[in-house]
Amino acid sequence: MVKRRKIDQRMVVISLDAVGARDLAYLKTLPNFQKLRAQSGYCDHVESVYPSITYPAHTSIVTGKKPLHHGVVNNLQLQPGRKSPDWMWQKHFIHGKTLYEAAAEKGYVTASILWPVTGKSGIRYCVPEIFANHWWQNQVTVSATNGPVLYQIELLKKFGHLIDGIKQPQLDNFVYAAADYTIRKYDPQLFLIHLTDVDTNRHLYGLDAPQIKEALERHDERLGGICQALAETGDMEKTTIVVLGDHCQIDTHTVLYPNYYLKKAGLIRATADGKIKDYDFIAQHCDGSCYIYAGKKLKKQMTIMSTEEKEAVMKQLRGCLQKIPHLHEIFSRKHAAALGADGDCICMLEAEPGYYFQNGMEKPQEEVDQMQGERMLATHGYLPTLPEYETFFMMSGYGVKQGEIPKMYLWDEGPTLASVLGVSLPDTDGKIIEQLLK
Q1: 290-325 tens-digit pLDDT
Q2: What is the pTM of this model?
Q3: 32 in helix, strand or coil?
Q4: Given a cut of 90, is residue 83 above it in pLDDT?
């Protein structure tokens, strides 16, 4: 058993990406999940954030804020013209204090493995979720410049053979092996673990493909292994185990390209070979939803335009967007902000179920089965109030009162976890769920 530190309390948070409330019926038949749930306080109806994608969701979990307020409003950065935009990988994108910062200030030893938006976060033992995105980069140097070097080298030497890029289940096998090793050697007191097996397989095969049950079974085995490592390294009476989802997914069949319509209307100007020169408006996809942003030049001009001139510009934009088929809704900037999305957008598009957005502009739409590049047979990003689109939250052990609560929001999780740890998060949108606490 490792030597305990001055604070003997500890918490492990395990995120099962894209696992929704719809998966609980099967999860409850699996031995490790079933055992933990019987000892838990839980909610089977957790509403995610908008847009309901991974980086905004995970940042809401650790800040208690909606994307509008914590600043991580998308997975991707707005980099028009780039074929592969950079993601919001680093901590500097987050506005305000995080759970791991509050814990470190109190003296907790912190760790995370592939938790989103933890590049250059200051977490003591950290493998940030980041990938080499440019021809001059490689994975080793990118990871090393965004997290503690010696710790990552140690894990790669021991478990690097398990990885095959981002393929699953290899990636989560590495995460599990690294987590087990980290618990046994370093015994962190706040440990954030991100597993993406189900998310990857849903993108590849669909919402309810046979591969999803197989991935859930692997998650159950990993959960059992992590619980065993915790039991063998410390006092379980002082240990809190949290298992949660971030969003669900829905099946898709067609991709929509809003930038095609903006380009056709002359609102995006491009070279003959398709490179963006400049634009008045640009679409930035979030899969099931999509932001529309104004270009810097137009944004500046609009500050000195008359009301009539502004209305003319917006009328042209609305006319263009209304030509896009299969839109469920066009949300105004004010409405998007009220939903918790980016208040700096001009407006926001929501696709009908079965459709999702991408940033290309060479065609209006495309069937997923006909795509040559990366395609997704299921995805996320939609309004979190869609039927059967909720996720779940459960925690057991120290500080937890067993039982079920009927409803909560993803941004309630941060304040609730902070309360168990005996720390606080300022200016949260969420509230502490007192019914789950002793």
Answers
A1: 999 999 999 999 999 999 999 999 999 999 999 999
A2: 0.96
A3: helix
A4: no
Query: Residue 344 carries which side chain, given as an amino acid letter?
Result: D
Q: Is residue 407 a contact partner of residue 45, using CB atoms and an 8 Å limit? A: yes
pLDDT tens profile 235-283: 999 999 999 999 999 999 999 999 999 999 999 999 988 889 999 999 9
Whether 337 has a pLDDT exceeding 50, the answer reads yes
Q: Which helix (H) or strand (E) is 409 found in, with range?
A: strand 408-409
Q: How far is CA 299 from the centre of its chain?
A: 29
CA 264 to chain centre: 33
Closest alpha carbon to 178 in 101, 233, 240, 125:
125
Position of tokens 């673990």? 193
H or E segment to which residue 150 belongs: helix 149-159
Cα first-last separation, the chain: 28
Spatial contact of 433 and 408, defined as CB atoms under 8 Å apart: yes
CA distance 14 to 438: 21
Contact status, residue 118 vs residue 147, Cβ threshold 8 Å: yes
Q: What is the pLDDT of residues 176-218, one digit of tens each?
A: 999 999 999 999 999 999 999 999 999 999 999 999 999 999 9
Long-range contacts of 171-179 (CB under 8 A, 24+ apart): 171/114, 171/196, 171/197, 171/200, 172/196, 172/197, 172/218, 172/219, 172/222, 175/113, 175/114, 176/222, 176/225, 176/226, 178/113, 178/127, 179/113, 179/226, 179/229
User: Cis peptide leading into 169, omega within 30 of 0?
Assistant: yes
Q: 250-251 and 239-244: which strand pairing?
A: unpaired
Taking the alpha carbons of 142, 146, 150, 154 in that order, is the dihedral positive or negative? negative
